[in-house]
């Protein structure tokens, strides 16, 4: 369906860069601002508009925020039947929007919802999808979207193109791209999308939402992260890191080894299969510096590594390295902070 024939110049029928303005409980997800930043750059290169797709129940009030962060247009669909996300309803509505309006590019955050939704839309609109991208560029020569993501266990970066199908679709890993700056003087239009959603067709019904008591932390948002690795040797080691993080006004991060050992929840995991973070300060304690871990924290402004092995790979990316036993060093750092406070 969405095959575009280069011989007939069908590519030119598809225009505009879309982003999925994911909202939960009528609040935009942080990744939306990252998508807007990328979309704006691309749209300026391609000389087209940025359209934010906003759907939900009573969500129109979010439109101006999207415009202030770079959208030229908000494509809005409101219906009380989609107060909560369901794969079927969202994928039907967005696929219909795509069919009618023919965007050239569509970006979604690689959140739980984005990862669920994007493949369904790609299948419905018969186009390709590159999941979990960490870099996006427009090819200077032919204007195609170059979508880059880690492949083969993070050992290589693969750049993928979608030459003959439209739209070009990508999910983008949260926390990697820079957020769009806010400009309150921007103006844009809100277009209400007309679609008769047949509630009967939605086979999944949400009966109740039970929120898990949250131990989750938004480490992607933190300015200071104190991260622990297998060098902690035991679950209780994280209590020490928690104390340091609290002193510094930060949060605790973790390597996958510690998550796999059940010492801490996955929400804290930094790296290729965890979260990508770029805090002002990242303190890596007892983390060896495996490529998959580095992939998630290398863009931190300052990296401090504490490791008893002077040859640990983490020291290669660290701005400051402390060679020694973390159980000696961290209490001393905490004491020094206490002394400053006094
Ligand atoms: P280790 O490599 O065991 O390192 C422990 C370090 O602690 C050592 O350097 C040691 O010298 C030091 N140490 C020991 N005792 C002390 C002490 N008392 N004081 C100070 N230092 C001490 N890993 C991630 O972290 N995030 C990911 O998202 C991720 N994704 C992956 C995806 C794939 C497909 C694969 C194959 C692997 C992935 N990994 C990921 C795993 C990764 O390869 C490493 O195995 C993992 O990062 C190692 O964790 P670590 O540094 O805590 O442990």
From TrEMBL:
State its cofactor: FAD
Which InterPro entries has this protein been placed in? DHS-like_NAD/FAD-binding_dom, ETF_a/b_N, ETF_a/FixB, ETF_alpha_N, ETF_asu_C, ETF_asu_C_CS, Rossmann-like_a/b/a_fold
**Domain (Electron transfer flavoprotein alpha/beta-subunit N-terminal): residue spans on this chain:** 17-206
Asked if the record carries the keyword Flavoprotein, the reply is yes
The alphabetized list of GO BP terms reads: fatty acid beta-oxidation using acyl-CoA dehydrogenase
Task: Tell me the keywords, alphabetical order.
Answer: Electron transport, FAD, Flavoprotein, Transport
The protein's matches in SMART domains, at most eight in alphabetical order, are given as: ETF
List the Pfam families hit by this protein, alphabetically.
ETF, ETF_alpha
What's one GO MF term for it? electron transfer activity
Q: How is the cofactor bound?
A: Binds 1 FAD per dimer.
- Recorded superkingdom: Bacteria
Which residues does the annotation say bind FAD? 230, 255-256, 269-273, 286-293, 307
Q: Which family does it belong to?
A: Belongs to the ETF alpha-subunit/FixB family.
Name under which the protein is recorded: Electron transfer flavoprotein alpha subunit apoprotein
Q: Which organism is it from?
A: Oceanotoga teriensis
């Amino acid at each position: 369906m969405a095959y575009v024939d280069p011989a007939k110049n069908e590519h030119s029928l598809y225009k505009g860069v879309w982003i999925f303005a994911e909202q939960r409980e009528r609040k935009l997800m942080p990744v939306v601002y990252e998508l807007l930043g990328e979309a704006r750059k691309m749209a300026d290169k391609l000389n087209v508009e940025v359209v934010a797709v906003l759907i939900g129940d009573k969500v129109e009030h979010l439109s101006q925020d999207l415009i202030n962060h770079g959208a030229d247009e908000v494509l809005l669909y409101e219906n009380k039947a989609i107060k909560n996300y369901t794969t079927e309803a969202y994928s039907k509505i967005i696929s219909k929007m795509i069919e009618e309006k023919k965007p050239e590019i569509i970006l979604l955050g690689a959140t739980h919802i984005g990862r669920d939704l994007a493949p369904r839309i790609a299948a419905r609109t018969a186009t390709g999808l590159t999941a979990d991208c960490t870099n996006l560029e427009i090819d200077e020569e032919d204007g195609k979207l170059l979508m880059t993501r880690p492949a083969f266990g993070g050992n290589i970066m693969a750049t993928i193109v979608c030459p003959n199908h439209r739209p070009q679709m990508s999910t983008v890993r949260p926390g990697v791209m820079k957020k769009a700056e806010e400009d309150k003087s921007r103006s844009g239009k809100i277009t209400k999308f007309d679609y008769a959603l047949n509630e009967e067709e939605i086979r999944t019904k949400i009966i109740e939402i039970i929120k898990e008591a949250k131990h989750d932390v938004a480490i992607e948002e933190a300015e200071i992260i104190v991260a622990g690795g297998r060098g902690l040797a035991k679950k209780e080691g994280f209590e020490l890191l928690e104390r340091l993080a609290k002193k510094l006004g930060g949060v605790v991060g973790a390597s996958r080894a510690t998550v796999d050992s059940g010492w801490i929840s996955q929400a804290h995991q930094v790296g290729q299969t965890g979260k990508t973070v770029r805090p002002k300060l990242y303190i890596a304690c007892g983390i060896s510096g495996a490529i998959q871990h580095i992939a998630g924290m290398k863009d931190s402004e300052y990296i401090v590594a504490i490791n008893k092995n002077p040859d640990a790979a983490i020291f290669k990316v660290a701005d400051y390295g402390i060679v020694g036993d973390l159980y000696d060093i961290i209490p001393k750092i905490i004491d020094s902070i206490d002394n400053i406070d006094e």
